[in-house]
Each structure stands twice: as structure tokens, then as C-alpha cells.
Amino acid sequence: PFYVGFEVGGFELGLVPDGTAGAGGSVAYWGVPDANAAAGWLTELGATPRGAVQDVGGGIKVAEFADPFGNVFAVIENPHFD
Fold first, then answer.
1. Is pTM beyond 0.85 here?
2. Which neighbouring-strand residues pair with 29?
3. Element (H, E) at 36
């Protein structure tokens, strides 16, 4: 119910079906090996967390941030994707 992921040419295309849009109508998710570590690093660099790292099921963890200019982006730890 939270997330649908597709492998496209070696990349993951993820869709969030709840209809929540970020700045500009989309949120880019960057794949990381450890969402908690990435969240700490991004915060140190000046990103503002928009909530805590969330386990959305199946071992998948996500977290959203705003950069210093207000753009929204996110990280995703997905153990099912290489």
C-alpha cells in the first residue's frame, strides 16, 4: 500500500500510490545501503529531515529531506534491489 517498485534498465523506479506530491510534483529517491547512516550524513551536510527513517515493510526503509533551497528528495534502503 505504500510503495510499488519496478526494475528498469538496472535502476529502480518507485511509485508511491498515496498521491502525496513533493515540490514540483515528484520526489527523487536515492538508493543507499543504510538509510539511517545516510540520514545522519545528509543532516550533517545541511539537509532538513521531513520525518524519521521509516520501515515501510519488507526491510525497505525510506526517509525524506529538504535541501537548503527547499527541494524535497529522499533516500531508500531496499535489500531486494541490487
1. no
2. 74
3. helix 35-44
